[in-house]
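Dear H.,

Thanks for agreeing to be a second pair of eyes. The structure we're designing against is below in token form, covering all 423 positions.
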């Protein structure tokens, strides 16, 4: 197991400089493009949830079918994320991120042409392959450029890109769907392809990856493959299994809530569609604040504490919303929920990246996070099944258990195991 290093290599030109030695404009450019990449991924991911009430009517979907669309999305994201992490270690972080953006942008826009459940499901699966890779690759890329003292807060902001994307998708849905329909909403996803092309031209690959992986490509056949390195070392294998377990329960709760909260607000609290989108915007903006604050504090007091506490808070808040909400308190409850629900994602990017060395970092982060998605893929369908027999609200209450189970494996994952700047 490679020891933690605290020194940076000497620069070899602008694109090859170590993060601490490169000019601010380089790592800030990496940060901006990664934030935008995550934001766009979040928009495309959330389009399904905010369009679901209208989709169910136009495509004649029952609640179980609607729930399986979320499950299909999660399975596609899991496969894409595992493969994306491996390609990022093999062929480059930036190159992989560019192709994931192209796949999910074109795929999501194509959903606007679908006419039935099966067409929608197949195209959603394909677009989800690109969505799944974005988070792990972006977190790895930023971790390897940003100075250690700023890593937590910067990755907290990058992680907040998802919540900003969720909020923007809700705003777009509230404006576009009532006037132009849900198909036009999905057509908007084509625009980010231009950003991917710009990113390919402007953003360098991290110096640690160049020196450790690409520079050794001629003799790769003599070395071990990424998955052999992960499972061949006991400590790395343990970290991978722990993070896979954490990711399964965290995403079971996170995506279960994201998929069904809009429909819950419309069908079981009596909100009209426009008011629901406003509530979701407020919830997601609270999540942005939660992620940024958690990332900032994680640099001060450690990743683990700032990951565990919001998970426990979310577990408490969910049942309170379902059983004790009223017109007078729903805004406050949804704001608290958004803050707590977002905060773990302001920490887990840096926490996971620092659990693995550069040689297998993207594979391990993308693999553990996205293998976890396979288990989490059951959440939308399970909630849909419970909603059919009882109510969406009752289905959402089971997510509290998943947040409690997220905490247990985290106890065994130390802070700061590797310096992401080290080569």
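And this is the sequence the design step returned. I haven't edited it by hand at all.
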């Amino acid at each position: 197991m490679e020891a933690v290093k605290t020194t940076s290599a000497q620069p070899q030109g602008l694109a090859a400089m170590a993060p601490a030695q490169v000019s601010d404009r380089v790592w800030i450019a990496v940060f901006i493009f990664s934030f935008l990449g995550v934001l766009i991924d979040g928009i495309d991911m959330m389009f399904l949830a905010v369009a679901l009430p209208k989709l169910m009517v136009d495509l004649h979907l029952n609640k179980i079918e609607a729930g399986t669309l979320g499950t299909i999305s999660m399975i596609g994201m899991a496969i894409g994320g595992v493969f994306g992490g491996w390609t990022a270690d093999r062929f480059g972080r930036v190159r992989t991120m560019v192709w994931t953006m192209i796949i999910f942008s074109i795929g999501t826009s194509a959903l606007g042409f679908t006419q039935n459940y099966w067409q929608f499901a197949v195209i959603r699966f394909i677009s989800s392959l690109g969505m799944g890779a974005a988070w792990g690759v972006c977190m790895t890329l930023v971790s390897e450029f940003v100075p250690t003292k700023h890593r937590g807060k910067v990755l907290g902001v990058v992680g907040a890109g998802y919540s900003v994307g969720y909020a923007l998708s809700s705003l777009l849905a509230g404006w576009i769907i009532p006037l132009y329909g849900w198909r036009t909403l999905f057509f908007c996803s084509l625009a980010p392809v231009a950003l991917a092309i710009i990113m390919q031209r402007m953003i360098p690959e991290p110096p640690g990856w160049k020196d450790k992986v690409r520079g050794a490509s001629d003799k790769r056949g003599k070395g071990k493959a990424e998955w052999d390195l992960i499972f061949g070392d006991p400590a790395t294998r343990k970290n991978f299994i722990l993070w896979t377990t954490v990711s399964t329960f965290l995403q079971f709760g996170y995506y279960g809530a994201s998929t069904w909260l809009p429909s819950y607000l419309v069908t079981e609290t009596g909100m009209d569609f426009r008011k629901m989108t406003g509530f979701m915007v407020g919830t997601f903006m609270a999540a942005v604040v939660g992620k940024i604050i958690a990332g900032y504090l994680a640099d001060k007091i450690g990743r683990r504490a700032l990951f565990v506490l919001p998970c426990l808070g979310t577990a408490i808040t969910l049942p309170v919303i379902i059983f004790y909400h009223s017109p007078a308190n729903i805004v406050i409850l949804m704001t608290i929920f958004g803050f707590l629900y977002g905060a773990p994602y302001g920490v887990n990017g840096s926490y996971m990246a620092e659990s693995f060395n550069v040689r297998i970092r993207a594979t391990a982060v993308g693999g553990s996070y996205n293998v976890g998605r396979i288990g989490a893929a059951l959440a939308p369908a399970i909630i849909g099944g419970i909603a059919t027999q009882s109510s969406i609200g009752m289905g959402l209450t089971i997510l509290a258990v998943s947040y409690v189970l997220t905490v247990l494996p985290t106890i065994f994952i130390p802070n700061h195991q590797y310096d992401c700047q080290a080569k």
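Two observations from my side: DSSP finds 18 helices and no strands in the chain. Residues 1-20, 218-223 have pLDDT under 50 and may be disordered.

Warmly,
E.
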